[in-house]
Design a protein that fits this description.
Low-confidence stretches: 40-61
Largest sheet: 7 strands, mixed
Number of strands: 23
Strand content: 15-25%
Mean pLDDT: 92
Radius of gyration: 23 Å
Strand order of the largest sheet: 3-2-7-20-21-22-23
Shape: globular
Helix content: 25-40%
Number of helices: 16
Bound molecules: zinc ion
Structural class: alpha/beta
């Protein structure tokens, strides 16, 4: 007898193949495909009186079926592989207490059964033991500075083994963490010995199960690493057959040069290249995806293994300190706070933002403080949702005072992209979906709760930008292939039983900038390792998830 059976649904199997009828079962965490059990009582579409997605629960509306212990009536629904979110910052979300439960649950509620964290150069490991303390003080992904940093992948995996979670988690090795864990936060080149140590720690982590190397070349200390340093590290990733995943050195006016640097790193290292949250942001770069996507297609035609991901919104989200010039962050958070207290240093920052600094992205100079709003400031809840420009006085002073009051930990939302660029990236055949969700309290970017339903509902069904099957493929099979997650991202006999069941006519994101954690509509069930973790749109409380490795 099967553990679970979904009857009467149409299957989007993750390969991009056309929808077809199949009954999908699960036994011991693996998929068992059965021929369709004949026309469902309701036929293909939801008939009048059929259970609404929100009222949908295990066994609801179905007859007892001798084939399985739990039966989900999938009439009118689509069953697909669980979504693989290739770009998250959920590294530590499940390690914290119940006050973060709603944030930690948002991804699985939108159908994500595997999250890939360790992105943008920031992971929770590895570091030399003598650097651990310093890293914990400066970590960019911190919840009020409490984020743990581990010596190695084993420490990271062990911490997660003791923290129940609904979905699975895989992690990249962040270059920024690796650099801070060996060199510290200084603005200088790594010595040949230090680079050797970094390569050794990276190799150990990849051998232990990390899924690739990531960089965040706009963030300190990653930005202090030059092209040659990244080539040396990406060469280690190449030896393990893992991708080089990059938040480019510039996603604004100099995005094309930054893309060429990434291509050079891939060419010289031999690593596969994956461009994170591809965008051309800021008014000087709007429309530039016509050129960057053509360049990516050209590189692929030339034999380079290159892909990218995107989130379906025209606003981004990052830390407020990243709005300041790189030298302001030299030495880590304590040094930044010291500079912010000094009026002369603030004047230098004001000047750098107004005039620009060669090689620095300068988000504010490309947009303006009126396009940047506070997403998370734990000690100043009343400011969340307001723009920096609206805080009063000079905006650099307002930003500086807020950073000082929050110990450097402020998350912002930046309205910086144009809709045609987002659509162009989404439609490209080599683009997968990554939410870039940042699980911070306050008003986080709604992408953490809306990304996947928004692609399926708004962009596929309403706008017709891509077919449902193609959208599902970008969220599943394509992502599993890129990150080497064998047996995931596809529904076939013996695959891992990570599944979603959704109403194709109703699936939609509900999360907004004002109310960012509203769960999606039309997500009937989410199954992880054969166990329903969401049913009738609500979490079941089951925690079958864990760390997964390529
Ligand atoms: Zn990033």
């Amino acid at each position: 007898m099967l553990d679970l059976l979904i009857t009467g649904a149409r299957l989007a199997d993750g390969t991009g193949a056309p929808l077809h009828r199949a009954d999908v079962g699960a036994l011991d965490g693996r998929v068992v495909l059965l021929p369709p059990s004949g026309p469902s009582p309701h036929g293909y579409g939801p008939a009048p009186g059929s259970p609404s997605p929100q009222g949908y629960a295990p066994g609801a509306g179905s007859q007892p079926d001798p084939r399985a212990r739990v039966v989900l009536d999938g009439a009118g629904m689509v069953v697909a592989p669980g979504f693989i979110d290739v770009h998250t910052h959920s590294d530590a979300a499940s390690l914290f207490g119940p006050e973060f439960a709603e944030l930690a649950a948002a991804p699985v509620r939108m159908g994500v059964t595997t999250e890939i964290c360790g992105n943008c150069g920031s992971s929770l490991f590895p570091a030399l033991p003598e650097r651990l303390e310093e890293l914990s003080r400066s970590s960019r992904t911190s919840f009020g500075g409490r984020v743990p940093i581990f010596r190695d992948f084993a420490g990271f995996a062990e911490a997660h083994a003791g923290a129940p979670r609904a979905n699975h988690l895989a992690s990249l090795v962040g270059h920024g963490t690796l650099r801070a864990g060996v060199v510290g936060y200084e603005d200088r080149a790594a010595s040949p010995y230090e680079l050797d140590v970094m390569c050794g720690l990276l190799g150990d982590a990849l051998a232990a199960g990390a899924a690739g190397l990531s960089t965040g070349l706009i963030y300190t200390p990653g930005t202090y690493g030059g092209t040659d340093e990244v080539v040396a590290l990406a060469s280690v990733a190449a030896r393990y057959g893992r991708p080089y995943v990059t938040h480019l050195r510039d996603e604004m006016a100099r995005v094309e040069e930054a893309l060429e640097e990434a291509a050079e790193i891939a060419r010289r290292s031999g690593a596969a290249l994956h461009v994170s949250h591809h965008k051309t942001a800021g008014r000087h770069a709007w429309g530039r995806t016509e050129r960057t996507l053509a360049r990516l297609a050209e590189l692929r035609a030339g034999g380079m293994d290159v892909t990218c991901d995107v989130y379906p919104y025209t606003a981004g989200s990052t830390s407020l300190s990243a709005m300041l010039p790189p030298w302001a962050n030299d030495g880590g958070t304590p040094a930044l706070l010291e500079r912010l207290r000094d009026p002369a240093q603030r004047d230098r920052m004001r000047h750098a933002i107004a005039e620009g600094v060669p090689g620095w992205e300068n988000t504010v100079g490309n947009g303006g403080w009126d396009l940047i709003s506070v997403a998370s400031a734990v000690g100043h809840r009343e400011l969340e949702g307001r723009t920096i420009a609206s805080l009063g006085g000079d905006p650099v002073d307002a930003a500086a005072e807020l950073l000082l009051a929050e110990g450097g930990q402020v998350t912002i939302i930046s309205h910086s992209m144009r809709e045609d660029d987002v659509r162009r990236v989404l439609a490209a055949e080599f683009t997968m979906i990554g939410s870039d969700g940042v699980p911070k309290p306050g008003r986080p970017h709604p992408r953490i709760a809306g990304t996947f339903p928004r692609v399926l509902g708004h962009y596929a069904r309403e706008e017709g930008l891509l077919s449902l099957e193609a959208a599902v493929h970008k969220m599943t099979g394509m992502a599993a292939g890129r990150f080497g997650l064998a047996g995931r991202g596809v529904v076939r006999d013996g695959a891992h039983a990570d599944l979603v069941v959704f109403d194709p006519a109703a699936i939609a994101d509900a999360a907004t900038y004002a109310d960012p954690l509203l769960p999606p509509r039309g997500m009937a069930a989410v199954v992880v390792a054969g166990e329903p973790t969401v049913a009738g749109g609500e979490p079941t409380g089951a925690t079958p998830g864990g760390i997964v490795t390529p």
